[in-house]
């Protein structure tokens, strides 16, 4: 083989090696680019996932805050409604208290009422001797009906007429603008056993309180309808 053939063969070998090297380089480049794209896609997806998770976390926080704010507003509204209902009910009771002041204005009917209250109190106490307390302005009325009250009680209870001592300590007077913050009594009586262990308060104000508490569910139902449990 002469030099020309050798040189030709070497050139062919060089071209082949170069072609193989280029093809290998292309393969490496393509593979590297694919791996880069895959890794880039994975990184992008990972970041997207983190963003979604962060958004979901913040959205949950917003929803929780909205629920808390709604619950607070709802409770505040309920409290306002309940307060308005209580104010209305209390205004009705205050109106009733003012009406009580008219009871003692009619002398004859008030005297009869006092006698009935005394008899009722005696039937509750069932004591042979009692202490009676009333307003200072009612002493005359009370003393005028004591005998008839004793006899009526004795007849109903089939006992001897009791001893009734009118106390020199009086119940508070009727309410007025001058003493609107002081203790007051619209009328009626308080009876107690002589030892003070048994006391029966039968004032007009006490009777209003009892009736009002007893009728309060009915009053609320009439005013506000059936309240859901």
From TrEMBL:
It comes from the Eukaryota. Signal peptide: none annotated. GO terms for molecular function: proton-transporting ATPase activity, rotational mechanism. One of its GO terms (cellular component) is proton-transporting two-sector ATPase complex, catalytic domain. Transmembrane segments: none annotated. Keywords: Ion transport, Transport. Belongs to the V-ATPase E subunit family. This is V-type proton ATPase subunit E.
């Amino acid at each position: 083989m002469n030099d020309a053939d050798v040189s030709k063969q070497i050139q062919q070998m060089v071209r082949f090696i170069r072609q193989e090297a280029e093809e290998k380089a292309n393969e490496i480049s393509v593979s590297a680019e694919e791996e880069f794209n895959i890794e880039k896609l994975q990184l992008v997806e990972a970041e997207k996932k983190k963003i979604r998770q962060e958004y979901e976390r913040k959205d949950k926080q917003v929803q929780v805050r909205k629920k808390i704010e709604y619950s607070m507003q709802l409770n505040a509204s309920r409290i306002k409604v309940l307060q308005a209902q209580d104010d209305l009910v209390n205004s009705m009771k205050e109106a009733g208290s003012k009406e009580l002041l008219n009871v003692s204005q009619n002398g004859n009917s008030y005297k009869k009422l006092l006698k009935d209250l005394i008899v009722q109190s005696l039937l509750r106490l069932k004591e042979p001797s009692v202490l009676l307390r009333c307003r200072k302005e009612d002493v005359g009325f009370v003393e005028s009906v004591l005998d008839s009250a004793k006899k009526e009680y004795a007849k109903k209870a089939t006992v001897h007429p009791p001893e009734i001592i009118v106390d020199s300590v009086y119940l508070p007077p009727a309410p007025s603008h001058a003493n609107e913050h002081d203790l007051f009594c619209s009328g009626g009586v308080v009876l107690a056993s002589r030892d003070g262990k048994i006391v029966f308060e039968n004032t007009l104000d006490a009777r209003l309180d009892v009736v009002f508490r007893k009728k309060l569910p009915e009053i609320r139902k009439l005013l506000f309808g059936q309240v859901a449990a």
